[in-house]
Automatic annotation (TrEMBL):
This is Uncharacterized protein. The lineage of its organism: Bacteria, Pseudomonadati, Pseudomonadota, Alphaproteobacteria, Rhodobacterales. Keywords: Signal. Residues 1-17 form the signal peptide. The keyword Signal applies.
C-alpha cells in the first residue's frame, strides 16, 4: 500500500514538473497584422494544472502579444489556438513564441519563428 501511494505521488510530481511544449507554429501576414496558430502539448490535469497562455516575444524578450487560454485541455492534446491582428514592428525578421502553465509559469524555452 505504501509503495502504491509513493508511486502516485512521484507520478503527480513528474506531471507537474513538465512545462508546456510548443509543437508547431504557423505565422502569416493577415490584413493589418499577423496571425499565429500555435500547437501546444501539456499534461493538463484540470484547473489547478494546465497550459494557460502563450505569447509572442521580440528577439530581446519583450512581449508583443499574448493569447490567454481560458480552460484546461485535459481531453484535447495536443491543441491549437490562434491569435490574429498581432502588430509586429516594421523590419522584424523573427519572433519567439513562449508557453505558460499554472502553477509553473513561463517555460524558459521558446520557439523562434521566421517572418520572412
Amino acid at each position: 500500500m505504501k509503495y502504491a501511494i509513493l508511486v502516485l505521488i512521484l507520478s503527480a510530481m513528474t506531471a507537474f514538473a513538465e512545462p508546456p511544449r510548443i509543437d508547431n507554429v504557423k505565422a502569416r501576414k493577415s490584413g493589418d497584422g499577423w496571425r499565429f496558430d500555435v500547437t501546444i502539448s501539456h499534461p493538463d490535469t484540470g484547473w489547478d494544472h494546465y497550459a494557460d497562455a502563450w505569447r509572442v516575444l521580440d528577439m530581446q524578450g519583450n512581449q508583443i502579444a499574448i493569447r490567454i487560454l481560458a480552460h484546461p485541455h485535459v481531453q484535447e492534446q495536443p491543441f491549437t489556438r490562434s491569435l490574429s491582428g498581432v502588430r509586429i514592428p516594421e523590419g522584424t525578421a523573427q519572433v519567439q513564441i513562449q508557453a505558460r502553465d499554472l502553477p509553473g509559469g513561463w517555460n524558459p524555452q521558446t520557439v523562434i519563428v521566421n517572418l520572412r
